[in-house]
Amino acid sequence: MPKFYRAEVIGSLLRPAYLKQARQQWENGHLSTLEFKRIEDRAVDEALALQEQSGLDVVTDGEMRRTHFIAPLTDVLSGVKPIPAFTRIWKRPHQPNQPAEQTQIPVQYGVVDKIRRLRSLTNEEFSYARSRAAKPLKITLPSPLMMALRWSLEYSREAYSDPFQLFADAAEIVRQEAQELAALGCEYIQIDAPELGMLCDPNRRRQDFADVGIDPDRLLSEGIDLLNSVATVPGIIFGLHLCRGNNRGYYVGEGGYEAVARQVFKRASNFRLMLLEYDDWRSGSFEPLLEVPHDKGVVLGLVSTKRQEIESAESLINRIGEAAQYYPHEQLALSTQCGFGTVWEGNPISESAEAAKLRLVAEVAHQVWPQGPRSI
Question: Is domain 3-375 annotated with CATH 3.20.20.210?
Fold first, then answer.
């Protein structure tokens, strides 16, 4: 039976300085590919060791080989290229009803032609990490609907007059990745879907979707069906991770899950796990958990990867208790709210705080659920 792990990690970790330097040297032609790959290997080894020493129940390779969490749908595809003028407004975490610091960050990539996979990034990630990991290993893949944030009226319409044709092509690529990972022995895949968290925000729903020609309601019907279609690979348990954007400590969306709960939690029926961001007021209340079918596991992302401050164990235990008023306690688990290094630069948090937060997740989870992982 598939395992439901109590102490979870979302995906990316902070890249060490030596890895960032090596990537720059490699991209500039001053380091051979073989030398660079050996440095990536070292970073993955250290990422696995950090998670295992922290006591987590499941680990990732830290996404050390990626420039960005969405790399499997950008860096190794044709039809996608950097578009410098393609930007989006991001915000720093702040208190409710207070003005937020804002900045414009380039989207980095836009779709300009029909997309086609050139090679697999995740096959390399899994094959290497599988040989090194002492604990269960999961691989993360981006949601095909993330291409909604790479489609534009200006750059993409000639290739995809209907953005849902793009999403269908992306879904086929993600499904193929999952099939190949299963053949390599992978048993747990997390699909990262921040676009669904953004749909919780009325402003983002309008600005990032409706105003650029993408019907938000269609995303939550036909789009969820496409997303659900990738989670059909036999032998793999699929988890769906929702957040509201995570880029160098900034976010894009605010608002509770009420706006998407019924469509996402029930329509995405092939996903056995829901990994939900819940680190501050931006995520709203736990009440939408009432919409989650009772055959799922829900992983509460209560520990922030955006803030340096370390949460108290008592506050996390209390929050888990609050969530249990809306979803069965024995089907809950704990994680960080998102990755520490969703983009190459990473969040403004120290490596020591990262390690402390991972230990905190493990310690609290094992205190609250001493029986450990369960079958679902």
Answer: yes
